[in-house]
Amino acid sequence: MTSYPQIIPTDNPLRPLAARPTRETKPRLWLLVLATCSTLTFGIRPQQPLLATLMWTIRLGGAACAVAALYRDPEVEIYDPIAEATALHQLQMTRLEATHQLALQQKQWEIQQYYDAQATQQIQVTIDHSAKLLQQKEFELLQLRQALANQQVEFETEKQRLTQSWQSQWERLEVQTAELEAAKNQLKAERDAIHAWAEEKAVELDATEREARSQLSARAAKLEQDLDHQRQLLIEEFEKQHNALVEMCQKEIENYRRLIADQEATIESQRLYLYNLQQPQYVEGTTTEELLADRVIAYLYEQGIIVRSPLVTPYGKAKFRLSFGILAIAPGKNDKGKYAETLIDAFKRLERVKEGIRGVVPGCRTMPDLELLHRQIRLTIDTSGVDWEAEARRAAEAIPEPLQEHFEQFVESCYHIGLFGPTRMGKTVCINNILAVMQRRLGGNAQLIVGDAKLSTALKVLKPRYLGAKECLKGLREAADEVQRRIELREADYRSDRPLREFSHDQRIYFFDEINEVISRFNQPVDPDDLEWLKDHDFPPKFAVSTYLLRLWRMGAELGVLTLIAGQNLMANQLKINVVDLENLGLLFMGGAISIGINYRCKGTEKSDLEAQYRLRRERYFKTKDKQYKYYGLFALPNEQPYLAQMPAPDAYLSAFTIPLLEATETDEEEESEFLESELDQTQLDEADRSVQDTTNSGADSGADGAGSGAGPDRTGAAPEIVRRLEDLLHQDFTGAHPTDYSSGAAPENPLAPGISPVLVQRVLVQYDQLQNQSKTIEKIWGTPRSGTSIKYLAAKWKFRKILYENGRKLPGKAWGEDPNDWKRFDELIGDESS
Question: For labeling, which of 466, 492, 614, 749 is most exposed (least CB within 10 Å)?
């Protein structure tokens, strides 16, 4: 008789996978085949870490198959207490190591502060030395002026001396003449001799005077020449110093402008973040109960209750429960008692507004039940009288739609358009229609030039001229050169008094896809061609891609050059430009980027109205499942009010379009459907996780769920499924991909920016406490989708894990130190991935 191990039952949801029951459902032959195939991987030794991990996973799987084929018996359940004890021991060791690393990081931070202080002191010493040099130069200039004054005094003295000598000689000549006149009568015989002698003396005196005057003039000319030479030397030295100071000031001005732009972007991000802190958190789901819960949360916000961490769970056939916490308001920060400050205050307010909650939920036939739990409030709401079909029709009729021609008017009003949205959200069809309207606007004979940074199969039909991010950089530079060439041609026409040419025979449309990939890799110029172009056109040697884009946006419209760029983040801080420069661009937000567009372009009541419309559109699609309501976007024209509208059909503007178009195949729609379904599944899984945690932490709630019957939990219902999901969640690698979610509303941070600010730390901790998911938190904070080759995602993941580790939070997936990037410096990580 076969001997089986003892089966030990347990209700612990954290049992390791080794303790789960296994069943033999197929012969063992296929397990032996898999084990044999896995041995072939020992001949492969890849260099990449990911492939090496995959090979070891296949080898371990083969070993598991071999063990299962030899020792696995049907209908056996094994419980391994050693594995559970080992897991608890590893958890304790991880916490001790986290405490040690926290102290080490604090010491490194203090050392860095000391070095920063030393650097600041050195800079101050350099400034004082420059000031002393300036005073010394001023003193030397004063000495030169004093020497020049002394030379002028010597010249005047010499001139006065010569004048006095000439006057004395003239007086002596007059005396001698008088003596001759007195002795004229007496010495008539000597008169002729004396007269001859006097004339001779007069000639000598004239020669002496002329010689003295010529010497004086030569000396005066030499002094003037020396003075001019000294003046010229002083002027040249002053001009050199002046040019050096001007250049230094220009550099400082550029630095201050860049800092001001960064500060403006940071202030805008902080303003949006503070605004979102005062907003309630809605349920991120699309089920009937979750949509009704959003209505209740909005009503509670009107009554001064700011909902946090809402959780919706079905309760029976026609009820659901809404459990939530509140945002506590610090004393003195509450504006005239507008918001509930504590959980007790919120509970009292809810007692007074039960009737209002019943009115918000259509078809609610009974008064909602209210319970105060541990740090939570729970509402039980009746939905037995809801007519869902009528609700869907009313939601569809309540949403205003602009005229059918709005899309064409939007494209014709903008010379340059930015398409902002995540992947698989209808951008392909939208690009079709935008290019068609642009082509028709230019008369149907414009040249289309395409740059594809990600080498998409959908764009292959357009025959892109520039493939990859590096060639797209070259395409942007050539486009900027084309704009400069047309400017020079018009300048020649203007100087020659000719009519300015219109370039109607050579109109161009530049289309660049995934512009964020080009900016993240090549915005800092390293190519000699980029550096030479920036130098020739008097631009600073930085932000090459941003400079090319600004050149096209500012000058291209008048010269017959239109542009269309598409990316996942077209905010000013990502493009490295000023906010006012985006006024040259018409923005179109799609998918999850709509919430970012609302927070970026709207304020006050206009923002509230668009948020309400956005929520209604989401409800309308998920209730009706009608494809005509699936694709919509936020249209933002420069200096005009943004609006939400449906996207035109795929063939709406293709009749007059003569160039090849992108192909919107059914495969894209199927992938997008799978994308949305996976997003819903992940949201439900997170809610199930929070539900199990709530059930485990509060035993009193189980009694409330059983309506006071005192019965044990129903192990045959949904509980085993929830436990299975929780076990999968605990053993899941949370570094996996997850759909983009921009519902936070705050502007995304730059993952490549050095340093971690306190605002970023607070923002990451708040978002992670709400989501409990690594990929979702990185999407919300940095706006970067998961990618194994993206430098931005690796940098954002490094910052995310470091923030959680330094603040004593449990890391999802791998523990600290198991990821090879945990022990790298940030600049080392960016340098390695870039190379």
Answer: 492
